[in-house]
Amino acid sequence: MEVSLSGWGRYPVQRCRVYRPESLKALKEVLASKTESSYLARGLGRAYGDAALNEGGGVILQTRRNRFLGFDEAAGVVRCEAGVSLAEILDVFVPRGYFLPVTPGTKFVTVGGAIASDVHGKNHHKDGTISNFVADLDLLTADGNRMTCSPDENADLFWATVGGMGLTGVILGASLRLIPISSSYIRVDYHKARHIDEAFEMFEATDEQYQYSVAWIDCLAGGRSLGRSVLMRGNHVPAEELPEALRGRPLHTGKKRMLTVPFDFPSVTLNYTSIRAFNALYYRVSKGSPGVLVHYDPFFYPLDAVLHWNRLYGKRGFLQYQVVFPFETSREGLIALLERLARDRRSSFLAVLKRFGAEGPGLLSFPRPGYTLALDIPARDRGLFAFLRDMDEWVLKMGGRVYLTKDAELAPELFAAMYPRLERFREIKGRIDPENRFSSSMARRLRLVEGAR
Ligand SMILES: Cc1cc2nc3c(=O)[nH]c(=O)nc-3n(C[C@H](O)[C@H](O)[C@H](O)COP(=O)(O)OP(=O)(O)OC[C@H]3O[C@@H](n4cnc5c(N)ncnc54)[C@H](O)[C@@H]3O)c2cc1C
Fold first, then answer.
1. Vertex 119, ends 40 and 75: CA angle to 5°?
2. Which residues, listed in sequence order, are joined to residue 320 by a DSSP beta bridge?
3. What whole-number distance in Å separates Cα of residue 300 and Cα of residue 121?
4. How far apart are CA 118 and CA 132, in angstroms?
5. How much is the pLDDT for 381?
6. Sorting pLDDT into bands at 50, 70 and 90, what band is 280?
7. Residue 268 confidence (pLDDT) above 70
């Protein structure tokens, strides 16, 4: 079926032919039919730009392949099909005393999508990306074979597939190491930083005390308040430390009721003025409170409480721009980016700052040691692309890079310079999929693989 499809940012929108196989046999038949010039697996479509699009080609939805296959209680390892969502894992395993080892800011992503983007969470400074917890994965390759890959078996293919944006094949399933918890709660310290230097000082001085750490940053505050932020950092709470009132159900999964945005808001709703007013208010009302007990759901997934929140940006959608600067250049890099954003009167409703730990292990993994900033910028005008091109060049000059799973605009030569292990990825891709049976709109835009269709 041919449909108009987009990522979570709703830019770009492209025509793709969509397949929704329910079994491995049906999936193999889709690939073997060679009806399309190329194919791409897709999960829950939470990548923002064109990573999960394949314009004019086949997109194979994985969401119906969502069975749990087993659980090794002694090792805390769950085995499941790639279409299982992180929300489903939480629903089943939190009541048993297990939590996700790494989670992005939404639970509505599939295991396959999380691995293909080698996602990071608020604990990256401690634990790295999700691939550190993937014991093994099964990959359906272009020749129709099923290969088991892990850091020990077919290791080359494993490191090309984690963070490989679906270009090495279809991840069929994976074994994921969960972490033990005894309660659903996080004890969170909120600290206000008056400017970017104070935020850096707090991150440097105390980040190691926290498993989870992130800052919301008011990207429209200027002058001496540039980079003012609210740091939110916390640790899992042992059940015995819960107050009496919560001890009865220490491992509950939270409320299921959700608000929904039922229609597209006019594109002007989130503009410079409204976002600036919101940011100022948010900073003022946020208290610098220590030791607040917060259920994991609002702590990790505040946006999931509003279904289709991406409609707030109107039909034209928005671009998420996430970059990382090495520690040495973080201050200079971030200040210039924030100043330029304010000067151009470009607003970001959500701006998140985080300190990364070690380099991501996948050949195309995004994280590297340094500070990462994520911005949601409304796609109001064509000038945005010129602005982002300038920012991309700046990020590269500072030794940083742009996150592929959020990207919709990076140029191929800048991409190649930002990802030094690209050649190694291309070698493996050339070996495993010489005819480029797996491709995507992003792969063609970034010339990620030679001669991609
Ligand atoms: C609100 C929000 C917050 C987010 N926060 C974070 C964050 O904190 N950290 C972070 O790292 N990311 C974050 N993300 C991005 C998100 O985690 C990734 O884009 C993730 O890959 C989405 O998973 P998905 O199942 O929706 O995959 P899709 O968006 O459908 O696909 C993403 C990529 O994975 C590939 N893929 C999907 N399934 C398979 C499969 N079975 N086999 C092979 N390839 C596959 C696709 O081809 C595509 O390249 C966030 C996204 C949103 C909307």
1. 105
2. 376
3. 9
4. 9
5. 79
6. low
7. no
What's the CA gap between 181 and 253, in Å, rounded? 13
Q: Give the pairing type, strands 77-81 and 229-236.
A: unpaired
Residue 56 amino acid letter = G
Q: Is 6 in the pocket of ligand 1 (CB under 6 A)?
A: no
Q: By C-alpha distance, which of 57, 156, 48 is closest to 427?
A: 156
Indicate whether residue 140 lines ligand 1 (CB < 6 A). Answer: no
Most confident of 213-227, 250-264, 419-433: 419-433
Ligand 1 and 113: CB distance under 6 A: yes
- Ligand 1 centroid vs 52 CA: distance in angstroms? 8
Joined tokens for residue 190:
């909120």
Rounded to 10 degrees, the C-alpha dihedral 23/25/30/33 comes to -170
The closest of 40, 43, 58 to 8, measured between CA atoms, is: 43
Burial zone of 359 (CB within 10 Å; 0-12 exposed, 13-18 middle, 19+ buried)? middle
pLDDT digits (tens, 9 = 90+) for 125-156: 999 999 999 999 999 999 999 999 999 999 99
Query: What are the structural domains, with CATH classification, of the chain?
Result: 68-181 (3.30.465.10), 185-411 (3.30.70.2520)
